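Quick one: co-fold with FE2/S2 (inorganic) cluster.
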Amino acid sequence: MPQIIFLPHEELCPEGAAIEAKTGETVLDVALKNGISIPHACEKSCACTTCHIVIREGFDSLEESDELEDDMLDKAWGLEAESRLGCQAIISDEDLVVEIPKYNLNIVNEDH
Ligand code: FES
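Sure, here it is.
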């Protein structure tokens, strides 16, 4: 089973986490099931950017993002070449290292 490592995030998982996942699950679902509350404002329908994550290792093992996901990602805070939407990133059989960006647009909007 692939192992998903979440790097520490100040609020969502201060210690980081290493979680056994199943092929075919999304990174967001694995996080949520394990108490890492990555925001998902549009309920996983690829219509927001709150579930933005960055895949630090294993990016190429994921199925490629489609156009809709890329369009949404363009609006994400802190976009990187290895950014994905957590609800659209389907785990294959390889391990991943995932970083949850410090901010997402929801938080930015609330704070400023
Ligand atoms: S939860 Fe909105 S795009 Fe993933």
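If it helps, Strands lie at 3-6, 17-20, 52-57, 83-85, 96-99.
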